[in-house]
């Protein structure tokens, strides 16, 4: 199951805005997507509540009685919004599940310094350093009349991270989010300039969100669709860390620490869905 996490420890860098857009894009592609809000502010959850149910559906977290965040059955794609200030154990737990991390960065020197520190911490984690979890930056709230995009592109290059381009500063983002919308939900002629800026971002995400069939996978007909997301090549597979249905993240609530728990799906497989039908990367 592809998991994209939106991370930057700098507050207000546009994480929730970006995460909402990625989830909305997945939903428009017909994916069964969940927008997970690891942020105590629950901005993404609030945005989902404002979203018109007639629009392509985005599922919120399902929270069980133990305050565990659960991926509902049938979800094939996960987008994680994370809080400002995330670091240490909390950051490592998000990375454990993520196939890709996108870091929205505003152009000021303070934003870049904070994002560079976040990048350094991410690179210290083996999943990111080894490339199993891909990493890229996006310029956020960029004024096209300035050299902000160029500065961010060069800054990203010095870090050795792909820069996926700028998203311009416009009230269209602000007003859309207020109405539970994204650029992808607006009439294309209204958001044409912004949709064009999303093209390289979507292109970069594509191999993560729609991975090609891996050679070692069983034929799709043998796999229970509610249990196994699209397969992916080894380079993108989190060995035993894939987020599968039944996996649980415990969100940090109040002073309680966040915990991630893996749980083997409880449902017993009928013989027709014998273990041989389960891709190798899900076997322990
Ligand atoms: N491209 C944009 N143009 C104009 N305003 C934007 C743009 N992107 C984000 N914003 C605004 O910037 C503010 C911060 O964005 P957002 O809440 O997405 O950041 P965040 O990183 O999630 O913040 P936090 O760290 O507090 O969770 C919001 O008011 C949002 O509407
Ligand atoms: Mg936020």
Give a description of the structure.
There is one protein chain. The longest helix is centred in the C-terminal third of the chain and has 18 residues, at about 190-210. The protein has helices spanning about 15-30, 45-50, 90-95, 110-125, 125-130, 150-160, 170-180, 190-210, and strands spanning about 5, 35, 60, 60-65, 70, 75-80, 100-105, 135-140, 165-170, 250, 260. It contains eight helices and eleven strands. About 30% of the residues lie in helices and about 15% in strands. The chain is α/β, with parallel strands linked by helices and about 280 residues long. It has a single domain, classed as 3-Layer(aba) Sandwich (Rossmann fold), CATH 3.40.50. Helix 1 crosses helix 2 (about 45-50). The protein binds adenosine-5'-triphosphate and magnesium ion.
Tell me the name of the CATH homologous superfamily.
P-loop containing nucleotide triphosphate hydrolases
Shape: globular
Beginning-to-end CA distance, first to last residue: 17 Å
**What proportion strand?**
15-25%
What's the architecture in CATH terms? 3-Layer(aba) Sandwich
Enumerate the distinct ligands: adenosine-5'-triphosphate, magnesium ion
Total of domains: 1
- Indicate the radius of gyration in whole angstroms: 19 Å
Number of E-type strands:
11
Strand numbers in spatial order across the main sheet: 3-2-6-1-7-8-9
Number of helices: 8
Write down the overall mean pLDDT. 79
Strand pairing plus helix content: what structural class?
Answer: alpha/beta
Q: Describe the main β-sheet briefly.
A: 7 strands, parallel
Regions with little confidence, pLDDT below 50 for 5+ residues: 216-244, 250-284
